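Ticket #4471: structure export looks truncated?
Reporter: QA, pipeline team
Priority: medium

Steps to reproduce: submit the single chain below to the structure queue and open the exported record.
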Amino acid sequence: MPIPTPVPVHEDSVLVDGVRIHLRRAGEGPLVLLLHGWPETGHCWRHVLPALARRYTVVAPDLRGYGQSGRPRDGYDKRTMARDMSLLMNRLGFDQASVVGHDRGARVAHRWALDRPAEVRRLALLSIIPTREMWRRMDARTAATYWHWLFHLVPDLPEFLTEGKEAEYVRFMLDRGLVQRHALGPADIEHYAESYRRAGAMRAGFDDYRAAFTTDLAADDADAEAGRRLTMPTLVLWGADGLAGTLPVLDIWRTYAEDVTGEAVGECGHFPMEEQPDQVLTRLEAFLGA
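Actual output as written to the record:
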């Protein structure tokens, strides 16, 4: 069987509501947006983006505050970050997208799909449960596993303790989440480490987490109380051996989405698209093309 010709990936930046959003783009066809989590950038989709681009226009941005995108002092609640992505979609000439998110990017995708359901054709969420469920389940066992959620909440202290050691902290968190440690080569790890050495980058990431306990939680609670659920087809994936693997992920999402399917990715930790990209790609291609 001939090997498919690689689809070239181009990097660009787009000004969205005063914030410069850096992105990687490839392919033609319906739009698929790939949203990264912490402590990563859009680079995390490097194994998935070119293959999807054989059928779709695929865009992997750096979210506000991350990578080479702008780092404003505020706007890290998921409603604002989702609005960034909606405006980016429009700037690229589309009025609807399939959205795939991992970790923090999945929380942005979830909020986007709740706020603007007509814009999200299909939704894939990797390695998360809803933000409000994280706080509702924050018992001693969960807190021991997700301790960084609590550490990142503290005003100013995480910035102070990681100053000058940004790369070491990022490497520690990446290594902690990986089962397939060979999935990240030295160049990949250095890319992420360098991204968080930039002025304001650690603060932006911590503010992303801080918003989860305030604005994001309030928005999620309001939607739950109003009975608003995800209405578009939704796929949920998580690493069987990762942090989410300790939780009943699919059962939880069934109370938040009308049409949800999903499964654990075997021999995988917190980063499925990097640890098991072939498995993730197979599931995404089937889901997006259904």
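Status: closed, not a bug. The export was complete when the record was re-opened. Leaving a note from the reviewer for reference: The mean pLDDT is 96.
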